[in-house]
Input
Amino acid sequence: MIVRTGRFGELSVEDDSKIFFPEGVLGFADNHWFSLIDPGDETLILWLQSLENPNLALPVLEPKIFRPDYSVRLSAAELRILKLDNVNQSAVFSILTIPEEITEMSANLKAPVVINLREKLGRQVVLQENEYSIKQLMFKELRTHLLTIAANSRRPSGEDEAAYSPIRVHTIPPSLTVRGLSG
Output
C-alpha cells in the first residue's frame, strides 16, 4: 500500500509492516494502523507513523538506550490483549517530545508503547510504577550513547572486539520497519 505522509512523503508499506493498535494510542484513539519508520539518520529515533492520518507521526525510542534499568511490568490482562506470554517477546518504546530546544527532549516512561513483534499488535500502556515520569529528560544520555557508537565504529580494525561493548539495542525486524523513503 502507498501511504502519503506529512513528514516522510510517500511510503510503500507492505502488509507485514502494519501494526494494529486496537485502542489507538493515547490522544489518538481513532488511529489504529501504524508502521515503524526508520528515517536512516543514525539518531536511533524511529517514528510511529499512522497509516490513517498522514500528519500523525510520533517519535519513539527504546528507553533502555538512555535508561538501562528501565523495565516494563504488564498485567495479565495487558499480556492477553497483546497475545504475549511475557514482555520479553515484545519491543518497548517511549514516545518522545522533541521541542525546538533539542536539549529539552524528553521521553514518556510512564506510558510506553509495547509491540508484539510476532503478531504485529501494539498497545500503549500506563504503568502503575510511580518511579517513571511522563517527561524524562534524556538528551544528554542519548547524545552520549550516539557518541559511544560513533567512537566504536571508528576504532582501528584488528583490535580486540571484547574491549568494546556498547549498550545493546534491540533491533526491530526489517519486516516491521519501513526503510525505503521517497518524496
